[in-house]
Structure formats: C-alpha cells, structure tokens
Write the structure tokens for this entry.
Amino acid sequence: EVSGKELAKVLEAKVIAAEGKLANKAVFGCTILDSLKVILELPYESFVKVYSNTSQRALLFTRVETGRSPMVAVRVTPIKPAIIILHSVDEVDKLAIKIAESEGIPLLVTKLKIEDVKTRLGQLGA
C-alpha cells in the first residue's frame, strides 16, 4: 500500500485535479496502459478487468496528447481508479480536468521516462 502523495512524489508527478483527495488515497498498485490501444482495441469488459482485484489502483496512461480520451473512458466505466496519471502531457484538456474533479479522482502528470517510472514503481512494490 502506498499513499497517493507518496506515489506522486516518487513519480515526480504534478497534481492537475482533485488535489485535496490525493492525501486520503491509498494505492495498491499501478497499471500502465497504452491509451491508444485501450481506446481503439480493448473491449469495454476487458477495460474493467485492468483493475485486477481492487479498484484502489493508479492507472498510468502512456501515448496521451491531452488526457481527454482516457478520462472519458474512465468516466463511462462503473469502477473508478484511485488515481489517474498521464504520461508526458504538456497541456491537460479542460474537459479531462472537469471529469477528474467531478469524479473525485486525483489527476496527475509525470514527465519521467517510462523506464524510470517502471523502476520506481518496482521499488515501491506497486
């Protein structure tokens, strides 16, 4: 188990939305998803399965331009992640921010190289 604040610190992530909720989030793992593959190829039923045994996971989306598509995908699923992290996004879409705020899901952005993200998550046990 890792706190949301600890996860953000380890990944050098900037909080974009729902910052007040971050301190109270406990995360039991992080799943890295290629956003284009998820949106274009993954059936809806399979998307829900990315949570494994608990929804108290962080989802980190790679190959993201603005964050809108992953946030819309999360919005329409019945199970919500604890935290959403967008990888290497320069400017987060306003709708993505609104969705994160309305769902109460902390939205973060990290600029770390994906290899470094994986290494740091491994060190955390996430």
